[in-house]
Amino acid sequence: MTYLEDEELSGILETEPLIVSTKKSLADVVTFKGRLAEIRRQEFLIDESEPIDEVTEISVFVRLSKLKLLR
Questions:
Q1: What are the residue boundaries of the structural domains of the chain, listed by start?
Q2: Long-range contacts made by residues 3-6, C-beta under 8 angstroms, separation at least 24?
């Protein structure tokens, strides 16, 4: 969702609300969009206990064009 256009992202969030699964889950759209902006700047995310309690998640966005350079 990080690299979707704002209009497309807003459309998805209107039909698919954010699911709160832990105390640290993002519950409001403004905060969620702010997190996506942060991920775009950093190009990675370290997420502690947000989707699942006591689990740390590390996510990295890899563009297909970068993968082609590795071949």
A1: 6-70
A2: 3/40, 3/61, 6/33
Contact 24, 33 (CB under 8 A): no
Its pTM stands at 0.70
Tell me the one-letter amino acid at 58.
I
Query: Using a CB cutoff of 8 Å and minimum separation of 24, what contacts does 34-38 make?
Result: 36/1, 36/2, 36/9
pLDDT 10s digits, 7-45? 999 999 999 989 888 888 888 899 989 988 988 888 888
52 and 21 Cβ atoms separated by less than 8 Å: yes
Q: Which residues, in sequence order, are CB contacts of 30 under 8 Å at separation 6+?
A: none
Which tokens hold the place of 23? 């105390």
